[in-house]
Specification:
The chain is built from 18 helices and 14 strands. The protein is an alpha/beta fold. InterPro entries: F-box-like_dom_sf, F-box_dom, FBXL15_LRR, Leu-rich_rpt, Leu-rich_rpt_Cys-con_subtyp, LRR_dom_sf.
């Protein structure tokens, strides 16, 4: 090799940083390419990984422990925790985290991803706050749905319910359609056909429901335990007869709670049907049923399990009606507020036959201190409402303070004849936690 060649190779090596293979190798592989390298070039700096947290840290907990923590968070925070990272999401999606939670949604459009998430978390209770579209998809995506509330969704129609309940939903136990004013008997027919295991049905304010709808309920919902027909103004005695198995209807023999508030077409005949056809009835709300009289209460007194009856503003009820109810001796709650024919005489019957009362409401009744002295004998009483009884004085409060040692709540709204001296007997009661004194000082 000449001196000039050695000088060129040295210059290339210095400028380019290239190193050739030995000459013997170059001769053997003259036609094959060979790899050059640059050993002196610096490489990019790679940062070292951050050290893992030492000791007990939330990121090192098992998913089972994370789920136990999430179970104790408010519902909104559980959803936020699921967005932190994948580990938290997987832990938050466990069914134990969402057990018993009711999802509250605005259904403005179908949301399959959301419905799939609810199904994965095992959500079984759904409350629809507003509705445009998507009810059918929501019901279909949650086959284990146990409770569905559409209360106040004015846009709910018979067509929407027919689509949502096109197939049977054996898991659904509770349905709330209160204030869905477009719902008619047609929807009740679909409900009776597809929701045969329904136990609670809320129809308060569904003013288009008639006796025909109750006939359909009586045919299909044999397991019904609670029914609310508040302000269903077209319902009359025949509808209640259907529920009680009258005529060709099979009835609802398992019914325990019946709400008939403001059903002003009902008469004593309806109560006669209830006394014979609803043997398991425990509570009934007849407030504002102005056609109900003492004769109807005589029928109700025969029910073996009746414990709670609301007769607020039933103008036809008097002391004699309370006497009929006292014959049963089983009542735990009685409301005869604004029954202006009920007075001290009714309490004479109550102390004899209703010694087990826990709640008594006598607001705006013809009540005096003599009546309160009789009330004081109901030693088990926990709630007493005597608001607007303007003839009650400190004498009556003294009797209550001496006799009602278990009293927890008392309403003295508008009792204008009492003084601070009389109130001293009430505020010293050992278990008292609620005291309403609105307008008591007005003369």
């Amino acid at each position: 090799m000449s001196a000039w060649t050695e000088e060129v190779l040295s210059w290339r090596e210095d400028r380019l940083g290239l190193t050739e293979l030995p000459s013997t190798t170059r001769r053997k592989n003259r036609t094959a390419p060979y790899r050059l390298h640059r050993p002196h070039l610096s490489t990019a700096h790679v940062p070292e990984p951050a050290p893992e947290p030492q000791g007990t840290h939330i990121s090192r907990l098992y998913p089972e422990l994370l789920a136990l923590i999430f179970e104790r968070l408010p519902v909104r925070d559980r959803g936020r925790a699921a967005q932190v990272c994948r580990a938290w999401r997987d832990a938050a999606d466990r069914r134990s985290v969402w057990r018993g939670v009711e999802a509250a949604l605005h259904l403005r459009r179908p949301a399959p991803v959301l419905f799939a998430s609810l199904a994965r978390r095992g959500v079984r209770r759904l409350q629809v706050l507003s509705l445009r579209r998507g009810l059918r998809d929501a019901v279909a995506a949650l086959p284990g749905l146990e409770s569905l509330s559409l209360s106040g969704c004015y846009s709910v129609t018979d067509a929407a319910l027919a689509s949502a309940f096109a197939t049977e939903l054996p898991a659904l136990r509770r349905l709330d359609l209160s204030l869905c004013k477009q719902v008619t008997d047609s929807s009740l027919g679909r409900i009776a056909q597809s929701l045969k295991n329904l136990e609670e049905l809320e129809l308060g304010g569904c003013c288009n429901v008639t006796d025909t709808g109750l006939l359909l309920i009586a045919w299909g919902l044999r397991k019904l335990r609670r029914l609310n027909l508040r302000s269903c103004w077209h319902v009359n005695d025949d509808g209640i007869a259907h529920l009680c198995g009258g005529g060709e209807a099979r009835g609802t023999p398992e019914l325990e709670h019946l709400g008939l508030q403001d059903c002003q077409r009902l008469t004593d005949e309806a109560l006669k049907h209830a006394a014979t056809g609803l043997p398991k009835l425990k509570s009934i709300n007849l407030s504002f049923c102005v056609a109900v009289t003492d004769a109807g209460l005589r029928h109700l007194a025969r029910l073996p399990h009746l414990e709670d009856i609301n007769l607020r503003a039933c103008d036809g009820v008097s002391d004699a009606g309370v006497a009929h109810l006292a014959e049963s001796g089983r009542l735990r709650a009685l409301d005869v507020s604004f029954c202006d024919k009920v007075g001290d005489e009714a309490l004479s019957h109550a102390t004899l036959g209703l010694s087990g009362l826990r709640s008594l409401s006598l607001s705006a009744c013809r009540l005096t201190d003599e009546g309160l002295e009789r009330v004081a004998r109901l030693s088990q009483l926990e709630t007493l409402n005597i608001g607007q009884c303007t003839r009650v004085t400190d004498r009556g409060l003294r009797a209550l303070g001496e006799g009602l040692r278990n009293l927890k709540a008392i309403d003295l709204y508008g009792c204008t004849c009492i003084t601070p001296q009389g109130l001293d007997h009430i505020v010293k009661l050992p278990r008292l936690s609620v005291l309403n004194l609105g307008l008591w000082h007005v003369r």
